[in-house]
Every structure is written in C-alpha cells, then in structure tokens.
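Agenda item 2: pyridoxal-5'-phosphate complex prediction
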Amino acid sequence: MSRYWSPIVHKLTPYVPGEQPKSTNLVKLNTNENPYGPSPRVIAALQAAVGDTLRLYPDPGASALRETVARYHGLSADQVFVGNGSDEVLALVFQALLRHDAPLLFPDITYSFYPVYCRLYDIASETVPLTDAMAVDVDAYANRPCGGIILANPNAPTGIALPLPEIRRLLEQHPDQVVVIDEAYVDFGAESAIALIQEFPNVLVVQTLSKSRSLAGLRVGLAFGQQPLIEGLNRVKDSFNSYPIDRLALAGAIAAYEDEAYFQSTCKAVMSSRDWLTEQLETLGFRVLPSATNFIFVTHPEHDAAAVAAGLRTRNVIVRHFSLPRIAQYLRISIGTQEECAAVVEAMREVLAAVH
Ligand SMILES: *Cc1c(COP(=O)(O)O)cnc(C)c1O
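Presented output:
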C-alpha cells in the first residue's frame, strides 16, 4: 500500500502465473509450455537478426509478420493484429472492444486473467456456469443482455473444446456484441473460428505462439477479425506502445510460420503423449476430462488434489492446482515429452500409494 498509487491500483488483484522454478532438475508440467524446442529455423532466424540493426526501432506495424500469418490463414493483412504475447493482445481487446455499459460474459471456470483485466479496465462482468460435464452451454448465453462475450476454446483449464457449429450459434445469438474466442490451444485438436471471420463481423479470434509453436519466451500473440475490429485494436495499441514486437520477435515469429512440417510433427507428438497419459491415469483411477489441448485436467475420486500435487512436488514433478471451489479437486497437468509423461505416471503411482 502506498499513498502514491493511483486510486485504481488499490483495487487490483493481479494474475498469479504458474511457478517458474530456478531448479532445472524438475519435471515442469505446470504452465503448459511446449516440451519440444522451437523449430531450428526459428533459432537460425533469431541468430541472423542479432546485429547492428538492433539500434533501429522495429516496424511499428509488424507488416512482414502480419502478411506471413495472413497468408497462412487465408486472410488479408488488415485482418491480423499482433502483440507482445496474447496476454497483451487480450488486454488491448478488453480495453478496445469489451468495455461497454452492459456486463462482459465468460464461463465460471476459464482463464483466470479475464477477471483481472475486468478490474484493470473497470469492466462489469458476469460468469455463466459450465455444465456439470464442464462444457460451455451456448444456450445459457442466449437472451442475456451483455456488452460482449469471451470464451477460451478449447477452454482452460478444462481442456474441453466447443465445436465450430456451437460458436456459430453463439455469434448468431449476439450480432450486436463482440465475441472473442481465445484459441491459445486450438492447434492441439480443435477447430479454429478463423473460418467464421468473413461471415461474422462480430468475431475476434486470439492466438499465441507460446504453446503450439513453442515460443513462450519470445512473447508473440495475434488477433484475427474483420478490419474494423483490428482498426479498433490498432487505435488503442498506438495510444499505448508503438513497438510491441521487437526485431528478434518479428524474425523468429515469421520463421515459425515457415516451418509447417516441424509444427505439425511436434503438435502430433504432444497429442499422442496426451492420449497415452490419459489412458495411464485412467488406469490409476483418475477421471480425465476430454482434452483438445496440451494439458489434461484430472480428478481422483479417492485422493485429495492438493495433497497429490504436494506429493508430486516432493518427487520433483510440478503440476498446477487451482484453489477455486468448483475445481479444487482437479489438477492440470501439462503434456511433456513422452519420458516426462512416463515420469508423471511413475510418481503418481507412488503418491497414490502414500497419500489419501
Ligand atoms: C497461455 C494462455 C494465454 C497467454 O499466452 P501468451 O501469448 O503467452 O501471453 C492466453 N490465453 C490462454 C487461455 C492461455 O492459456
């Protein structure tokens, strides 16, 4: 507390990211990072970008990156926005497109950054409960007065994906509001709402290079939508930071989209380890929600989730536990390499034998 703070600072409850431990001999499965490194082409592009040109500002419009990504998705460059990680993109989206008189709607269980942005930007919000099966129920959003809707699809931390026809129904229900689809995990087995952009002026899709493209450390996020939505984002961005994407991030991000084979093969490896880990944990008595992401959300009928997480921690495995009432008995486990997944199963056997 300080008397020097702006009044709003007293009311903030900042987001708490997953632990980034100093120790490296841990099986770190708590922040959904990709276990495989970035494409070798990304590393080469980053190295090539290190040099005297770093004395110059980067392109404020990041046009080479926007053109590359637009081509990749069959869009035009003015339908693409880029920012310093999708968390920054989301912050700009909340300010530029979701701050209205009526409340913003999002699920009761979802990415916990959304309520944080609401407090930062003074946006009223209401949560809409997931079904008993932890899925988004589009009908529960119908006829609810709102200023906008944001969904993570697949949802986090449940991992459950909403099929595209359901997103379409949601967009049709709310023609006068922006519906934001946060697709941080879409590449691990869900369908992207980018396919709906030409048809719906109210859909904004947000993606990141942090998960499926293994570049959490580079900080690049994207938004896709019709040009007026992108222009709104640019107006706020250019009132805040003209250069969110530095020269290295620009070079690395472009290279990531130029190595489709590496992208496909690493996503496939993660998905196949996910399916293996799901089966193994089911054999140990866990209930595993159907995941279309690079993590699984699991609960055990006979073992306390927080105690299991603590037991895993003493065996050098870190997973994520959220102390929200509805999901207090669940653990979120990121998918590591096949060896890391095998280590989780091994540690879990020991923990279940020891903890009740
Ligand atoms: C990881 C994640 C993000 C943030 O990604 P960055 O691009 O690294 O900021 C956004 N939304 C969801 C749902 C995520 O899980």
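Discussion summary: The chain is about 35% helix and 15% strand.
Owner for follow-up: CH.
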